[in-house]
Every structure is written in C-alpha cells, then in structure tokens.
Design brief:
With about 450 residues, this protein is an alpha/beta fold. It contains twelve helices and 23 strands. It folds into three domains: about 30 residues; about 210 residues, P-loop containing nucleotide triphosphate hydrolases (Rossmann fold, 3-Layer(aba) Sandwich); about 170 residues, 2-Layer Sandwich (Ribosomal Protein S5, domain 2), CATH 3.30.230.10. Strands 8-7-9-10-6-11-12-13-14 form a nine-stranded mixed beta sheet, sandwiched between helices. The protein binds thymidine-5'-diphosphate and magnesium ion.
C-alpha cells in the first residue's frame, strides 16, 4: 500500500496533482487542500471469497420492498414519496438559521417505529439542544444525544447503539482523522459522508445529514454530496418570513417535484395543508398591480399572488427588479408587452414580486406577469375573483400550458369566478366547471377582456 496525496478545490471539488493558487475550473483563489489517497492493491478480478462474480439475468433477482417509516409530518412524507425509507441516506440542506435543526428535532420525536434515535451534533451542546427540546415540548426517552465531531468516534457510537435513525448536524462540523484538510472542506465532507454511508447502509440504519448552504449555494457541502446520497431535500424561505418550503431535488425512492410547506412558529415547524388559502388570504381589495395565478409544485396546484409596481424612472436607465421569478423572463415579457401590446415601459422602473417568498419557475405564469405589469402601469385593477393562466410567446401569442384541469379545480375550490386560459387549452377541456372560463389567443385579446385596453 502506498500513500499518495492529491489537492482538491474546496469550492468545486476539482482535483490536481500539485497545489494551485487559482482553481482552473471555478477560478477561486486559495481553495486547494491536500487530501491523502490510500491506494489499495488491485486484485485483478474483483472476486469475493475466491468465487468469480458472474453477471446474472436481472429477472432472477427479486426486488426488495422498501420499508417506509412515517415521519409524523404529512408534508415531509409526501416530499419523500411516502415516508423515510429504511436504510436510506437523506441530505437536508439550507441556509443557516432557516430551521433545519428545529425540524429534525421534531422528526426525532414524532418518527414511528421501534428503537432509538441518535442525534449527533457538532454545532450545539447538549444543553442547547435540550433548551430547544423544552421549547418544542419534546420529552422523549428514545432520543440519544452525542456531542462529537470526530467521525470515527461517531461511527463507533452508531455501531454501539444501533439506532433506527441517525442525525448528523451538521456535515460541515465533522472531521475525519484520516485527512489533513479542514473540517467543512470538500474532501472532508465527502469522506465523512462515505464513512457514515458505509456504516449505516451495512446495518440498515436510516441517516439524515444536515448541511449548510449559503445564499449562492456555493459552500462546500450539500452540492458536492448530491450524487452520493439517496435523497436531497432543501429547506428554503426568507429568514425573517415565517413560511418555509421543503423541496425535494433528488429522490431515489420517489418523485422530485414535490414540495412541502411549513410555518416556523414559536413552538417549532407546523405543516400547512392548505397553502393556497394562506398565500392569497392577505390580498387587498382590488388594487391595481395584483393578480392570482395557479402554479404547479410537483403534483399539487398552488395559487399565488403576483404583484407589480411601475413608476417613472428617475435616472436614465430603467430599473427592473424580479422577486421570486426569473429576471430574464421578466425582461422578455416586458419586451413583448412593449412591442406587441403597446405598453410603453421604457421610462418606467418595474418591480415584480411573488407574494409569500415563493419562487415560481414555470412559463404558465407568463400571462399573469404581463397583465399584472400592464395593470399597474395603467392603474386599472384586475378583477379580484379572476385567475390568469398561459405561457406567452415572443409574438405575443398565448400558448398552451400543462395540467390545466388541476389548476382550474384548485381555483374553483377556493371560490374564484373567472379564469383566463389559452384558447388551445379551452378546446380540450372535458369536465364542467362552475368557473366562467375565457379562452384567449394572444396578449392583446387578454388585455381587452380585462379592460386594460
Ligand atoms: P435552527 O433550527 O437552529 O436553524 P438551522 O439549524 O437551520 O441553522 O432555527 C433557528 C431559528 O429558528 C432561530 O432564529 C429561532 C427560530 N425558532 C423559532 O422561531 N421557533 C422555534 O420553536 C425554534 C426552536 C426556533
Ligand atoms: Mg442547526
């Protein structure tokens, strides 16, 4: 056996044989750390116990059924695809202070099944966690605590206690003795994850690893681990705003498009089962520059409020601010509005906001964005009981969107009266709705229907 070292970029994971001041892959400075590589002697054939491994027909294997445990939160179970899969490795990422430790502690208390839960924290002391548990009203004999950052000792504790669930809070504070790199570096977080994975997978222990990401999402940690773990969840939200969104970005045991909604209250995270209701509840009476659109988050339709504000530009260059939608999409739609519908915004600052801190990234809200901006510019309100749906093309045409029926059902359920949808979608509708459904072909037609033109 021979020990070799490589140098790994802490920002992006780029490997090099020698130390470099600047990473050729991501251009960051001073980001290289030394990492030891232990070479194992190749045995030629990967033979276990002297037998030759022969490939067999896939049909000759039997699929093992995944055993799922309910976490006690329906919103979380849905994002996971029906509960925590036994023996799986879950990564929970999010900005510091967003509520990861709080949510996890609540899960430790609520999770079903026999056995203990091992909470390993390198961030907080036992007293701090106890204080949080008291605040959350948690008093559970089955939660074991270990304040340790040495992963070799943590693994020993996992083997000794054999819990049903292990929490590592957080991956950035743990270190392995095998490496010289600092805790939190790419090589450390990778090594730790693979060590924990080996121990837990071999024993069928479910593991949740917590990792911090910054606003730019570029810190060592979650991003470089995504390929190693079974499930990746991100907890998002504005820190000073009480709603939190749990988003699945990778899931080997379910769909990845699901989101779960929570609210951070003084007694921890509470799930929200009727998010649309809450997202649109604080709407003013018929102001100009506000409209409701229906977006899909996974399999669930969500009604959200879009707000726009236009005002005269003070300096020469008009300002555009997009909150919760893609900036380039806004620029494109403003250009379409100007060229195809004659709404002259070239001396106007435009601010666009998705209410509730939500990020919406689908073309079905295009028409909503365009019309709400025109509504603010002309100071003409869009009717309060109206929903607007449709993708807008560069020639101003309104294009078909997917899953229209689900969106309409949600609008109907929440008592909306009128719905503006693409003409091509209207032709295909099968069900009867109580809604007054108006099909339109282009943006001008939509503006005329609402009285914006
Ligand atoms: P925390 O779970 O420590 O965040 P993370 O682990 O993601 O860094 O949450 C920290 C914030 O949550 C802190 O600002 C206080 C707030 N909080 C509540 O609002 N209610 C509560 O019941 C608890 C425990 C925390
Ligand atoms: Mg924490």
């Amino acid at each position: 056996m021979k020990n070799k070292t490589v140098f790994v970029c802490n920002e992006c994971g780029y490997e090099s044989g020698k130390w470099l001041g600047k990473c050729p892959a991501c251009n960051s400075w001073n980001s290289f750390y030394e990492q030891k590589v232990v070479e194992t002697k190749s045995k030629g054939l990967s033979a276990s116990e002297g037998k030759l491994t022969m490939p067999q027909s896939l049909n000759s294997y039997e699929a093992k059924e995944t055993i799922r445990t309910h976490t006690g939160f329906q919103e979380l179970d849905r994002v996971l695809g029906g509960g925590l899969v036994k023996g799986s490795l879950v990564l929970l990422g999010g900005e510091p202070g967003i509520g990861k430790s709080t949510l996890i502690l609540q899960i430790c208390d609520k999770i079903k099944g026999d056995g203990k839960v091992l909470y390993v924290s390198g961030e907080e002391s036992a007293e701090q966690i106890k204080l949080r548990a008291d605040r959350l009203g948690i008093n559970n004999e089955d939660i074991l605590f270990l304040g340790e950052t040495n992963i070799e000792l943590v693994n020993q504790a996992i083997i000794n206690t054999n819990p049903k669930l292990v929490i590592i809070d957080s991956i950035q504070t743990m270190y392995s003795e095998e490496l010289t790199a600092a805790a939190g570096s790419v090589s450390q977080v990778r090594e730790i994850t693979s060590q924990v994975m080996r121990v837990c997978k071999s024993k069928g222990i479910t593991t949740i690893i917590i990792g911090h990401v910054t606003k730019e999402g570029n810190i060592a940690g979650p991003r470089v681990l995504e390929h190693m773990v079974d499930t990746v969840l991100y907890l998002e939200g504005e820190r000073y705003f009480s709603y939190r969104i749990l988003r699945g970005v990778k899931n080997r045991f379910g769909s990845t498009n699901e989101i779960g909604m929570f609210e951070m209250q003084d007694k921890g995270m509470q799930e929200i089962d009727n998010p649309s209701d809450i997202l649109i509840s604080e709407r003013e009476d018929n102001p100009a520059g506000s409209c409701i659109v229906a977006t899909m988050e996974g399999t669930r339709p969500l009604l959200v409020e879009l707000q726009a504000l236009t005002c005269n530009t003070v300096f020469g260059y008009p300002k555009r601010t997009a909150n919760g939608i893609d900036y380039n999409r806004l620029s494109l739609l403003l250009a379409v509005l100007e060229k195809r519908a004659g709404v002259m915004l070239n001396s106007q600052d435009v601010y666009l906001n998705v209410v509730g801190g939500l990020k919406v990234n689908e073309p079905a809200i295009d028409l909503g964005i365009a019309l709400v901006t025109a509504s603010s510019f002309k100071n003409i309100p869009i009717p309060k009981d109206m929903i607007i749906l449709g993708e807008v093309g560069l020639t101003g045409e309104v294009r078909r969107i997917n899953l229209i029926e689900k969106r309409l059902k949600e609008a109907e359920k929440l008592g909306f009266k009128t719905c503006i949808i693409p003409e091509s979608n209207k032709k295909d509708l099968k069900d009867n709705y109580k809604l007054d459904i108006i099909g339109i072909k282009d943006i001008n037609e939509a503006m005329k229907k609402i009285g914006l033109k």
